[in-house]
Specification:
Elements (H helix, E strand, L loop, with lengths): L3 H13 L1 H8 L3 H33 L13 E5 L15 E6 L5 H10 L4 E7 L13 E7 L8 H11 E12 L7 H16 L9 H7 L4 E8 L9 E8 L1
Parallel strand pairs: 1-2, 1-4, 2-3, 4-5
Antiparallel strand pairs: 5-7, 6-7
Length: about 250
């Protein structure tokens, strides 16, 4: 739990961010955040994050073609596609279904679609990770989720949906920021920033121990690697990367 000094600094940070708290109280911040601030900010952060995580993503997605279905096609569903920064890593001919709870990324998304014409784009669904009812059970070969599990309402429900839509033998790929080691300074700052960060960045939680959720989900095989992706002034350095097979 947060220590007294963390709570004190947390209050100080909330004081600095009081306009956001006020706008939130008035019901103005969330729609503005969803429509304007978050898509704009995420695209800026994604640029920095993509540079730092590129080698991990190249390595992560290298074996995607191994999960092609019996037809020889790879049907891939991405949860929380955002502006499509993962498209460049998908193999040619891959059939992509994009989903996001926030439909306001269209500009960046269409730009990345134009850049990555080696893929077939099937459809874009406005859907939360916990509710993919528009996607039939067992209908995809791979599900991808990067920097999304931090902000879903329920990680376990999302992973249940992932396992439902995957065909047997299909794979779930992830790269997510997670809670730091509890005795570390990073964890201390995660504790300090937590409430303000969650408000400002559309529900993003800094202290989720997502590897535990993945270990509890019913994957037949699970590969998880703990890595560090440092972005200046951001308390999101500890990450996990890997994939699970249904």
């Amino acid at each position: 739990e947060a220590t007294a000094s963390a709570l004190l600094l947390r209050a100080g940070l909330a004081l600095l961010a009081w306009p956001v708290y006020l706008l939130s109280f008035l019901g103005i911040w969330e729609p503005f955040c969803r429509k304007v601030f978050f898509p704009f900010f995420l695209e800026k952060i994604s640029g920095a994050h993509d540079k730092k995580s590129k080698k991990y993503k190249q390595e992560l997605f290298r074996n995607l073609p191994d999960f092609r279905g019996p037809s020889g096609e790879l049907r891939l569903l991405e949860i929380g596609t955002g502006s499509g920064s993962n498209f460049q890593f998908y193999p040619a001919g891959c059939r992509v279904t994009c989903t996001d709870i926030n439909p306001n990324f269209q500009e960046g998304l269409s730009r990345n679609m134009k850049k990555n014409q080696h893929l077939h784009y099937e459809q874009f669904l406005v859907a939360a990770g916990e509710d993919l009812r528009q996607v039939p059970s067992g209908s995809v070969d791979a599900v991808v989720c990067t920097l999304v599990l931090c902000s879903v309402h329920s990680v376990s429900s999302t992973l249940r949906e992932v396992l439902r839509v995957l065909r047997p033998g299909g794979a779930f790929y992830f790269l997510e920021h997670v809670a730091a080691e509890h005795s570390s300074w990073t964890y201390f700052w995660q504790q300090v920033c937590y409430p303000t960060w969650k408000l400002v960045f559309a529900g993003c939680c800094l202290t989720r121990e997502l590897w535990k959720n993945l270990e509890e989900a019913k994957f037949s095989e699970l590969k998880i690697q703990h890595i560090s992706v440092a972005i200046p002034w951001m308390p999101i350095e500890p990450h996990i990367v890997g994939y699970g097979v249904k």
